[in-house]
Amino acid sequence: MRRADADGTPRLALTGDGVIWLWVTVLMAAVGWYKSINLVLLLAYLMLALMVLNGVLARLHARRVSAAREPVPPAFAGEEVVVALSATNTAARAATAAVEDRSGGDPVTWFAHHLPPGNTARFAARRVFPVRGRSAPGLRVGSAYPFGLLRYDRGVPAEKVVVLPPAGVADADGLRRWLLRSAEGDGRARRVLRRVTADAADVRGVRPYRPGDPIRAVHWRSTARRGALMVREYDAAPSPDLVLVVEPWLPAGPDRADLDAVEAALSLAVTVVRTWAAASGTRATVAVAGDPDSVRTTAPTDAGVRDALVPLADVVGADRFEPLSPQAFDRSLTRAARVVVSSRPDTPYAGALYRSTGRPFLVVCPEDRLAWYQPPAGVVTGGSRTVDSG
Amino acid sequence: MRPDPAFRLSVYLTMGLSCLCVAYAEYDLFPEVPYIAAAAVAVMAWLYRLEGRVELLSIPEANRVGLIVGLANLGWAGFRVAGELNKPSGPGAGELQMVLVALFGPLLVTLMPAKLARKEKHVGDYWALYGMSLVSAGLSGAMAEDAGGVVLIGLYAAAAVWSLSLFHLRRAGGEVPPVPNRTAPPPVAGAASAAPGRAGVRPAAVLAALAAAAAVPVYLLTPRSPGEKLEFGRPRTEVGYEPDKMANLNQTGTLRVNPAVAFEVEADTAGAPKTDLGPEQRWRGQVRRQYLGGEWRPGDAGPALAPFPRAPAGPWVPPRLGPGECRLTFSVPDPGRARQRGEFLADPVGWAGGEDVPVATLTPEGPEGWDAVYDGRFFPHLTPTPGEPHRYTQVWRPEPDADLGPAVLVDPNDPRLRQLTHNPVPRVKEYADRVVDGMVRAGQLPADYRDPFTRLPARRHHDAIARALTGHLSGSGFRYTLTLKRDRKEMDPVEEFLFHAKAGHCERFAAALVLMLRSQGIPAQLALGFKGCEPADAPGRYVVRQEHAHAWAEALIVEFEPGPRGPVSRWRSLDPSPTATDPADAAGGGWAADTRAWLNGVFKELFVDYSQEQRRRALAAAAGFATRWDVLAGAGLVVGGLVAWRLRRRAAAAEPRRAPTLFDRVLAVLARHGFAPQPGDTPREFAAAVGAALRRDARTAAVAGVPGEWAEAFYESRFGGRPLAPARAAALDAGLADLTRALAGRPVAGPVG
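Output (structure tokens, whole complex):
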């Protein structure tokens, strides 16, 4: 059966049942007419009239119904999402129609029978979008009322669903420790992290020294006043903000493995951002290499994270990227943990970023062995590396 | 899962009605089919109750049941076919084919319950059920002959429409599993229904009515096929000229009236139209002389008649038959493959000895005289062109006695007379002897009427005996009927007719008379043709229809009367068919019987037997009806009323009426003086603006507060729910009157606000 054209052009077409019905009708009419079996001929005409009625009514009913998909927040590929639709009867008579949603791969249909005029029927279904990108298929409103012999379909534009790369699972503490450890190779980076950590701490008060407290934390004034060692007591040090740049590097003439590497890098980036924002409660800034317009900073909420990751849904790999300037970032890079997630090991892009921004970036790629990271199904990773900032 | 009740009921109802259609249509052919159908319907009713309550059959089990049912059917069908082959008259090839096809009906009837007994039915199962019911209904439609069959098929169609609409809804809602192992449609994630009831009977009825309203006119307008009509089931005959069928007295069934035109005749006398041809006019076709086993065959040529006309050697010269002669021009259409074209002549056929034959075919090159056989038969010399009407002319003179042919000389010892006196049914002589003896007792015949040598009635009594036997058959308890039966198939049909049935069609009467005449030594033969005609659209033109087909007897009265050269003989046409029909065929018996007969007639004419001629008449009648001034006026009124109603509805929907409010009164007064509210102004705002404008004018300053008072009163009553007190209403009215007076002396104001 032909359906409405991809551009939504309405189409009236015979269903499979309708084709058989038509053949039977023609055969009966031919035999009935040729052999003057009048009642058989009349039955055939009746069947033909029913088919014509079907076509007319299917068109009428389909045109009475409008459908809309409620905006769906960006969803991770492979994540089960509730997609809500509404079908509204905009005519003055009841309508019987079906709404088909092809987003998420396999089409799903909802059927509204005798929808009163002006009424809206709401449907919802759990859908899984398997592939990142912007799920473009609109909705189709169709009707084959009342016999299912002919079907009238028309396309209804609907908002695209942004599908983010699939997220893996990351251990938040492991990620934090890795960040700190990875910064060891760059003492400056480590000091930055530690200083940021310390500066960002709120002093809760002083207390007596306990073995193991850092000497730095000794509050000398209180110590002098009390005659005993007193140390500052801090609130849990807030995590720094995260600045993550994704480099979707693809060689010219990429093969399947190269494309998979890009997807794996995107999944890793998404996982890091999501885990960091959820665990630390701080903001993360996400950027795509070479695209200053892609820089987004999350709000420390799930919705904010998803919104910030939207540019990753449209990422197309390339073999060279211009380093982002510091002005591209909407936040200070100084007090943030800075990471480059690349699809290739030994990426020179981190060095280029350092030269551009004056700030070193940790580098990670899916090939790194990351003990704290579990990629989503179908994505493979290896070991971890950092890049010399010089 | 048990389907919802409405859908289940619709499916079972549709299947049950199709079984009833088969039972009704095949009852005459297979009397046991109604019992089979009743059993099938009973099983369906039982399954309807059981479905969902107990486990029905799995697919393999249902298939096994179907196989058993099919085999049982096969056995019964074999028995039936064997019976057909062993018929005393031998298997008719056409009848055997029809029987084989009709056997499908009971097979489908028994398979439907087996299919319904399946546990989980998917879409394909339901479509198979609908298909089986459609074939059953189609088969019944092919065999239906009366209103009952048509009504049952109509009920089936209505039930099927209902069921199909519910079937679609259930499929679309995902309640019916798709066909396994085939590409399934997108899964239905959810369904919502706000239908007032799930039964859906009313919408289905509307759909069925609309479809019927569209289908019936198209069917009536469709030109009819030139092919032969397929006859299903029992052998059906119709009143129409088919010599072979007419001559076979073993045929049974109900004769159906066929109004198709057989031929047309133009009659003129000396150039003037002859308008007095009446319903008793006979048109002679073939004669049959040999009787064998209930069938009349042409036989050998008859005795030579003299003088006889000559076949023209050159151009045909019409014979002179004497005063009153007229010219009849015949136009016989080609009946296609349905019938053999015949040639018909006005009876009695007259000729002038020694002159050209009285019949000639009209050709572009001129009339071509027919060939003549010495026994009084004429044949066209030229074969008619297929597809074109056969036009020929006959010179004819109506005789004072329309039953008597021309005077001829016949050799009483002509051996060809023996064929015409051969009676193979001894009991017919026994019957005829009794009748003749009755004539003697009644004094119509002398006691010595028999020839001493032959022991048969002497020739001088032949004419009287012939007329007496004719009168006996047309009265004396014999009935004319269109329903032909053969209850005693071991007897000769004529013998059965005379001694037991005493009812039949014209062929039975004529055949019996011929044999009775022969048994008395009177040469006789069976004549087949038509009797009667209808005036056509012009004076002198007549139409003879198939329903006028007729059979009569012809007796050769040898030495009928003296002649100049010796005794002359004459053929006398004898029509023993009574004119009164069988009460069972008649439409008497009260309004119920009349209505039933009328309905039957309508259904037969419009559906069962709808032919090209009926189509022509129906179209002419429809055109005549549609062009009547009263019908056109009525239709115009109805259409106009509908259009006006629709327009009013649209206007009312576009402009919702607003009930007049209290404030409208002061608005009306102010509007006359140029005060109109701005778009969006509330009554209070408007009143304030008007008040300000009125205050600026000394003439109206005193009444500047009136609009505000009215606005407040409007708000209180409209929104505050406080009706106006009568005193306050009176005060407002007085204020309005003051305002009106004050404004009357003021020039028309500009826009306010």
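Chain A has eight helices and 20 strands.
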